[in-house]
Amino acid sequence: MELKKSFDTRFPPDQTWQGLSDIHLVASCLPGAAITEQVTADEYKGKLSVKVGPLAASFDGLISIERDQLQRMATVTGKGADAKSSSRVSAKMSYQVTPGADGGTHVEIVSDISLAGALAQFGKAAVMQEIANRMTNEFVRQFENRLAEQEAAASATSAATEAGAVASDAADGAAVPKPAPAPQAAAAQLDAGNLLWVILKDRIAGFFRRLFK
Q1: What is the pLDDT of residues 147-169, one digit of tens each?
Q2: Which residue, 66, 68, 70, 111, shows the most beta carbons closer than 10 Å to its own?
Q3: Same-domain pairing of 26 and 120
């Protein structure tokens, strides 16, 4: 079963591509999804919980990703099984990031999904399309919120770094006051010399007065 979806985001293509390349960020934005273990650089174990009609299932499986950085394209393949319902799912999803309107981004998604077991009887095209629409809308909302949080955090860090640099430059450029000479010490030395001269003058004068009496 092939499903096609697309969405637009206000964030630029590079930022959107980086966000979509973070598998943990993507999983946190996708309802019912979680990454449980990283196997290799491009392979992960994960879980996806969905409800199709009256049947709820939780699939445990393996996910692999191939990325084309230059074209901003990626292909995600995965398969999993639900132990309770004995249902199985295999999927291949390709997406491409392209420039959108007003500096934003347009993302095209093509998915090929195969269901087997109890879940397959409820997984009709119309039902699966409705589930895809609901999950995509929620994903886009969460994804944009996460990108906005990252943007705000980066701006705050940049502002703090700039403020620290300005403060450091101001401290480095400030004149270091030199200690002023100690006028008290000079005055004390001068006064002591004068006092000694006065004493000697008085004693010499007294000596001559006694001598010529």
Answers
A1: 999 889 988 887 888 777 666 66
A2: 111
A3: yes
∠ at Cα 60 (18, 118), nearest 5°?
A: 125
Query: Do 114 and 204 fall into the same domain?
Result: no
* DSSP for residue 51: E
What is the number of other CB atoms lying within 10 angstroms of the CB of residue 187?
10
Instruction: Tell me phi and psi for residue 55, to 5 degrees.
Output: -105, 125
Helix/strand/coil percentages in the chain, nearest 5: 45, 35, 15
For the chain, the domain total comes to: 2
Q: Give the global pTM.
A: 0.68
Q: What gap in Å lies between CA 128 and CA 192, rounded to an integer?
A: 105
Contact in structure between 105 and 9 (CB atoms under 8 Å):
yes
Residue 86 lies inside a defined structural domain of this protein? yes
Is residue 89 pLDDT above 90, yes or no? Answer: no
Among the listed residues 139, 184, 106, 115, the one whose alpha carbon sits nearest the alpha carbon of residue 25: 139
